[in-house]
Amino acid sequence: MEIVLSAAIGVLAASGAWLLMRPRSFQVIVGLCLLSYAVNLFIFAMGRLTVGAPAIMPKRGFVNPDAYADPIPQALVLTAIVISFATTALFLVVMIAARGFTGSDHVDGQERAP
Amino acid sequence: MIEPNLILLLVLLPFAGSLVAATLPSGARTGTAWLSGLVLSAGLLILAALHRPVADGQVLRAKLSWVPSLGLDLDFRLDGFAWLFVTLVLGIGVLVVLYARYYLAKSDPAPRFHACILAFTGAMVGMLTSGNVLMLVVFWELTSLVSFLLIGYWHQSPAARDGARMALVITAAGGLCLLAAMLLLGRIAGSYDLDVILASGAAIRTHPLYGATLALFLIGAFTKSAQVPFHFWLPNAMAAPTPVSAFLHSATMVKAGVFLLVRFSPALGGTEAWFFAVTGIGMASLTFGAMVALFRHDLKGLLAYSTISNLGLITALAGIGSRAAILAGIFHIVNHAVFKASLFMAAGIIDHESGTRDMRRLSGLIRLMPVTGTLAIVAAASMAGVPLLNGFLSKEMFFAEAVDWHNGTWLDDALPYIATFASVFTVAYSLRFIATVFFGPPPVDLPQTPHEPVRWLRWPVELLVMACLVVGVVPGLTLGPTLNMAARSVLGADLPYYSVAVWHGLNTPLVMSFVALVLGAALYLGFADRIAQGPEGPPLIHRLQAQRLYERFMLAATWTGPRRLLRVVAPDRLQPQLRLIVLLAIAGTAYMTWGRVGIEPRLGPTAPNAGFLLMWVVGGACAVGAAWQAKYHRFAALVLLGVAGLVTCLTFAWFSAPDLAVTQLLVEVVTTVLLLLGLRWMPRRREEISGDRLLAARGRRGRDLVIAVAFGTAMSLLAFTVMTRPQLSTVGDWFLRHAYSEGGGTNVVNVILVDFRAFDTFGEITVLVIVALTVFALLRRFRPADESAGRPEQQATPTARALRDYMLVPSVIMQWMFPVLIVLSAYLFLRGHDLPGGGFSAGVTLAIAFLLQYLAAHVRWVESRLTVLPAFWMGFGLLVAGGTGLGSWVFGYPFLTAHAQYVDLPLIGEVPAATAMIFDLGVFGVVVGATVLMLIAIAHQSLRSARARAEEAERQHEEAA
């Protein structure tokens, strides 16, 4: 499982990083989305992989923490998901506003000098 | 027990005086002069009071606790050497203040001058009396800083500014080296206390870091004392007013370096490295300074190089380090301060009265200003080492040490010859000073006609020259005891009394002095004309200038280098910056995981599940596909991105994170809608971008591909390495144990968000609100590009009519979904504390419910039936969340303390009723408001551009009519 998930994180991160370095702003925004998947999964994986034991506690009795998934990375990632939506929206608006001002969707506002 | 307070007063008084002087009106010339004169005289009185205990061999101390827990104290100590030095500084200081009163013009702001002089004196006294080496460095740097202000006193002149900056750069850089040396010394000795360090000389000399410590220490001392090759700042600092030069470059600033050499010679000295470095550099400076001084045409330039030469002599003595050498060094510190201060002042008088300092223009001044001339001639003779003057005595002692002291190295053998050679030049430049300025035909064509200065301008010179004479004739009665006291405090109390006398019999040093006098006179008389016509430097050597190297270095370090660096690390373009960030991330990951990647035997990877593998084969392919298609096929890329997001969501669900799965799914929906809305404003991309298939573009893509693959591999390895290590107990265990008992909820993730870490969440929803408002504000001024401004072709008839028909059934379903989604949202919200759900997911769900209405019909249709006020939602949410936090104050708990209990309601049963749920309601409100505001603001742009189109059409219609 770990091999598959780490490979998945790698593929998402590589695709995201490649798009991040592209010249078109839409490419960069898609790249940021992919990278945020990779990073969220990565943070989530720091709590190790647990199958079938969500962090829902019994109401009474002794609690053995080892029997449940680590809630900390989950809480971190939950807020990260919402914030990454907000930053995507912000970047999108900056992108279309810049496109309106400069007439180009190149990230620098003008095409690369040949 | 009055001594400690007196010592503190001694250090603090000049600083206090400086503050007062700085506040006086700029016309108060006499008042500020009195102030600084009195402050410095008060210091001298304190020294007089302290003389008896110091002369008895006591070391007086004063300590102010500063940061006791770190062992940092303001620790002052006054021994014989420091006493002598402080007396010298304050004594010359008083004379300089008096001199400056009559030297400075009316237009020069006197308070600034005196404030700086007093601050400088304070820094100097602090440096001399520091009992802690770190404090010593602080005062040391303070002298560099204030000397910058003093040298640049006439800041209108570019020469003064450049000279000041150069002095600061060189001496402050040296100070940093000194700081490093002191830190090393403190580490070796185990304490930053000066006494401890001086007492642990044996440990320091055998320590492996001795070489580095010595080198850093010497750079600090040599830069300050203007020793070769750091000497060039001193001649440039001559752009300062003459009183400043007389103070800084005779008695104080440059002497700080030799003070340090003498002071630390018991700790660092005595080794061959010390001898070669210190005596070698000292002899080089002695010779070089004397040679260049002979060729300078500027009076102050001659004196500056003469200072370099004399400091070289003292440095050489400190390098020899024998008892007589240390005593001779201290003696020459005093003698040089006295005759050089008087010479600087005399040069200042000549400059002041005649308007020039150029020796090629000055001539025969003895007829016009006989008294000043005589004084200057005596002082210059002392500089040359003429018998019966003080300069002769210390120079004679230097010759004696050069001859008598032996350690068997070649430098030791060469010392008498180098010393005599340098003295020949010393005599020659002193003679040139005397002969050209005061003798010869009467001067012609001077800017002013010289005459004797006012009495008080000459008085300090008279006093100093008197001191030269008295010390020169009866040294044993005047300075002898004090010198022995100072040397004892450096070398130890068991030093036998050294008698300073004028006549030692006919011996080798006397012969050396005689040879130097004769050859020096011959040298000057033989070449006087050629020197006057030649360049400002000895033949051949004047082309070798350390200053050029310095200037080239400064240009590279402060201008070309930073710009080059800036071009690399902060280019104007986004792509190189992002590439740099990615590369840094790779480097960081590689550094952290180097040699640690591997499978931990205790916790190997679990066997992959075929379903999960298949899922990620699809997910990975979609991610790569999105990356591939994002340039020319944006819509396809968006769909592929969505699939990758869904697979991520499934992964969360697979690994026991239902909350994440729900939130990811819902956010995926709104993100997709958001990007779809954005697509409308992107340029068409049907044909190929020009130049996209060129070799350069392919090369860039290939390079980025390599970087990206490296980045992905690094992330993979890091993730795999961490995942296959066993997890130690984390703070998460605590949350798991206490979620129910303390937070009153069974869904730990939600309890963390709204209770344990509620402050973080509060901050986060605030950020969300800020981002939403920023998006809204940015779009208010939005102007679409021309090609996107028109109606998209899908809205043109007849396609639009057909589309409306196709969309009828889905749109009806979407409208019917509205109540269902509201119920779902409420359900997610209410179960959030105990089961997966919560304010975030409920908020996004409700936002989707609104969104679907916009999708189902058009904007106007929705807004005529449904009033959504996103700003109210956000404000309500923030107020509720913040109010919940404040509510806990009412009950005396810290901000955002939650209370939890279960309430037994009839019919419904036991329901959770925690205040955290009210906080969660705030989160819910903010998420709904922010999401809806952002999406609707973007959606409204189509409406606005449609309105703009209608107005445009109307205007054209009117123009046509």
TrEMBL record, chain A:
Cellular compartments annotated: Cell membrane
InterPro entries noted in UniProt: CPA3_antiporter_subunitC (IPR050601), NUOK/Mnh_C1-like (IPR039428)
Keywords: Cell membrane, Membrane, Transmembrane, Transmembrane helix
Cellular component annotations (GO), alphabetically ordered: plasma membrane
UniProt topology in membrane: Multi-pass membrane protein
Record-annotated membrane-spanning stretches: 26-51, 72-98
Keyword DNA-binding belongs to the record: no
Highest taxon listed in the record's lineage: Bacteria
Entry keyword Transmembrane helix: yes
Alphabetical list of NCBIfam families matching this protein: PRK09094.1
Family: Belongs to the CPA3 antiporters (TC 2.A.63) subunit C family.
Protein name in the entry: Na(+) H(+) antiporter subunit C
Organism: Rubellimicrobium mesophilum DSM 19309
Source taxonomy: Bacteria, Pseudomonadati, Pseudomonadota, Alphaproteobacteria, Rhodobacterales
From TrEMBL, chain B:
Taxonomic superkingdom: Bacteria
Domain MrpA C-terminal/MbhE: 700-795
NADH-Ubiquinone oxidoreductase (complex I) chain 5 N-terminal domain sequence ranges: 69-113
Transmembrane segments: 31-50, 81-104, 166-189, 209-234, 274-295, 302-320, 326-350, 371-394, 414-440, 461-480, 500-525, 580-599, 611-628, 635-655, 661-683, 704-723, 761-779, 806-829, 835-856, 868-891, 911-939
Residue ranges annotated for the Na+/H+ antiporter MnhB subunit-related protein domain, each copy included: 810-932
Membrane topology designation: Multi-pass membrane protein
A biological-process GO annotation: monoatomic ion transport
Cell location: Cell membrane; Membrane
UniProt keyword list: Antiport, Cell membrane, Ion transport, Membrane, Transmembrane, Transmembrane helix, Transport
Coiled coil: none
GO molecular function ontology, one term from the record: antiporter activity
NCBIfam families the record matches: PRK12648.1
Name used for this protein in its record: Na(+) H(+) antiporter subunit A, Na(+) H(+) antiporter subunit B
Organism: Rubellimicrobium mesophilum DSM 19309
